[in-house]
Write a structure and sequence with these properties.
Elements: E1 8-15, H1 21-34, E2 40-47, E3 53-55, E4 77-80, E5 89-92, E6 100-104, E7 107-110, H2 121-128, H3 138-145, H4 147-156, E8 164-167, H5 169-174, H6 176-184, E9 190-194, E10 204-206, H7 212-220, E11 226-230, E12 235-242, E13 251-252, E14 256-259, H8 269-274, E15 279-281, H9 288-304, E16 310-317, E17 323-329, H10 339-346, H11 351-364
Cofactor: Mg(2+); Mn(2+)
Protein name: D-alanine--D-alanine ligase
Enzyme class: ligase
Length: 370
């Protein structure tokens, strides 16, 4: 704990360089509003779209208002993280001025989605700095961000995943015909996605072979690596997982089924964050034994990647009663529309208690190899 304050000092990091910058800001706004200020002192750290770290205004509006997405404008004092495990704080580095310390930080809450945040990059930075932080470590974050490697690990652990094809940048440039032939073997329709993006950015549902090239190029605007997944007939069900306290096993929330209105073809960005007709059933109308099986699979998927802190695991439930893993999100959204906090609230852990649980879990774990 900081020597300058009796409270636990939390650096909330948000924004970032990915296409999910705005959603990270919305998540941060909701989380900072929920933090118990009697126990925690919050240091808001924004990362601008160009990668600059700044001390963000504490009163900054971080919400979607009239369809307008928030962002970090980069106008605050510039910050740097010293690569000294004994330093324990942030440095203010203004041009022409001597760097000054912002004070010790007890724990970092990196609310970053997508590349350059959720993919192991900031986790590696925090490991080098000897900082405690919320969420998965370097490897679990990287594997959880890359849908292709995620599915490979799950397959190796005997977990059920659907058919898919990955296309690297080199393969698309040099072996396009071969990769498209592999994709055609999946049948139609397929979903073409950036391999390392989230919030449904850059996804296309393809129903015609003539549209495959354009769909891959759309995904490549977000990530040069692409994954193409066979469409799975079934209901989309999500489940939250939390790392167990002390040596207790990981635990799963009640699941949620996202029910879309407005005629959307799939759960895209606009539907997730801007559609007022979206609702969730928690728990969904499923047999009790099916729900328990899903919760067990969610914990297995979490543990297979060696996740820490939290994750949301997404499934398909087929008409035959089979569960198929879709993907994992190691830093799920905490916006008012997000499934993760709603599932845990329905499971008996409300929003402030959930945030406190994540911070206490991070504070209890050691730094370095574990």
């Amino acid at each position: 704990m900081s020597q300058l304050s009796p409270k636990i000092r939390v650096a909330v990091v948000f924004g970032g360089r990915s296409s999910e910058h705005a959603i990270s800001c919305v998540t941060a706004g909701a989380v900072m509003a929920a933090v118990d200020r009697d126990r925690y002192e919050v240091v808001p750290v924004g990362i601008a779209r160009d990668g600059r770290w700044v001390l963000a205004p504490g009163d900054q509006r971080l919400a979607i208002e009239d369809g307008r997405l928030p962002e970090v404008d980069g106008s605050g004092s510039a910050l740097a993280l010293p690569f000294d495990p004994d330093a324990g704080g942030l440095m203010v580095v203004e041009p022409g001025a001597v760097p000054r310390t912002l004070g010790d930080v007890d724990v970092v809450l990196p609310l970053l989605h997508g590349p350059y945040g959720e993919d192991g990059t900031i986790q590696g930075l925090l490991e080098l700095a000897g900082a405690r932080y919320v969420g998965a470590g370097v490897l679990a974050s990287a594997v959880g961000m890359d849908k292709g490697f995620m599915k490979l690990v799950w397959q190796a652990q005997g977990l059920p995943v659907g058919p898919y094809v990955t296309i690297t940048d080199r393969e698309w440039r040099r072996e396009r015909k071969r990769k498209l032939d592999e994709v055609r073997e999946l049948g139609l329709p397929v979903f073409v996605k950036p391999a390392r993006a989230g919030s449904s950015m850059g996804i296309t549902r393809v129903t015609s072979e003539d549209a495959l090239d354009a769909a891959v190029e759309t995904a490549r605007e977000h990530d040069p690596k692409v994954i193409v997944e066979a469409a799975i007939t079934g209901r989309e069900i999500e489940c939250g997982v939390l790392q167990g306290l002390a040596d207790e096993p990981s635990e799963a929330s009640l699941p949620a089924e996202v029910l879309m209105g407005g005629g959307a073809d799939f759960y895209d960005f606009e539907t997730k964050y801007l559609d007022s007709s979206l609702r969730m059933d928690i728990p969904p109308d499923l047999p009790a034994e099916a729900i328990e099986e899903m919760r067990r699979l969610a914990v297995r998927a979490f543990d297979a990647l060696d996740c820490e802190g939290l994750a949301r695991v997404d499934f398909f439930y087929t008409p035959e009663g089979r569960w198929i893993l879709n993907e994992i999100n190691t830093m799920p959204g905490f916006t008012p529309a997000s499934a993760f906090p709603q599932m845990w609230a329905a499971s008996g852990l409300d929003y402030p208690a959930l945030v406190d649980r994540l911070l206490q879990t991070a504070l209890a774990r050691p730094v370095g190899l574990r």
